[in-house]
Backbone:
């Protein structure tokens, strides 16, 4: 998970889930699901590496503690790891065969001269990593958008900091 934050809300976890669900439904660019323990939200029109915001709701004495984490969708992350590890395993296999460690699996002399064929798994792995970084770059604005959407919906305040004073609010009276 990339970014995280801890917030407090004066509402119960069920109320927070209902408010989050109504905010998700009201926003046409966002889809998600909300339960009394977890809220998941993501933008509809994003790239394959779209950001998923997870809000873990835990009840407290004066409301709800909300732990927000945002990151790449877990299915895409696992697929990417499997994809890259397969190409890296193939690259190691090509290297071992190129060094003639396996006598039964040898490249011909023409294959030894074709550096592109031998380096293709390494190039594919590098392109996969570059594609993941490009996807993260293109999804850079999704985390603040989703965080703001859920924090405003649940009326959450950052944990450990006092609530900011509004400009038009009356000043506290001291005696």
Residues:
């Amino acid at each position: 998970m990339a970014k995280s934050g801890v917030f407090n809300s004066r509402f119960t976890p069920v109320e927070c889930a209902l408010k989050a669900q109504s905010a998700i439904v009201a926003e046409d660019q966002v889809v998600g699901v909300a339960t009394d323990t977890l809220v998941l939200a993501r933008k509809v029109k994003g790239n394959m590496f779209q950001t998923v915001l997870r809000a873990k709701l835990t009840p407290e004495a004066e409301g709800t503690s909300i732990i927000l984490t945002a990151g790449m969708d877990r299915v895409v992350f696992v697929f990417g790891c499997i994809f890259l590890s397969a190409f890296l395993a193939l690259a190691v296999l090509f290297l071992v065969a190129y060094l003639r460690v396996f006598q039964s699996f040898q490249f011909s002399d023409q294959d030894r001269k074709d550096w592109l064929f031998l380096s293709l798994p390494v190039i594919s792995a590098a392109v996969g990593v570059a594609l993941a970084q490009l996807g993260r770059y293109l999804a850079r604005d999704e985390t603040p958008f989703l965080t703001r959407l859920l924090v405003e919906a649940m009326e959450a305040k950052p944990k450990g900091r006092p609530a900011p004073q509004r400009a038009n609010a009356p000043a506290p009276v001291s005696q």
Q: What stands out?
A: The chain has two domains: 3-73+140-158, 76-136. The chain is about 45% helix and 25% strand. The chain has a mean pLDDT of 81. Strands lie at 3-9, 30-34, 38-43, 51-60, 63-72, 157-158.
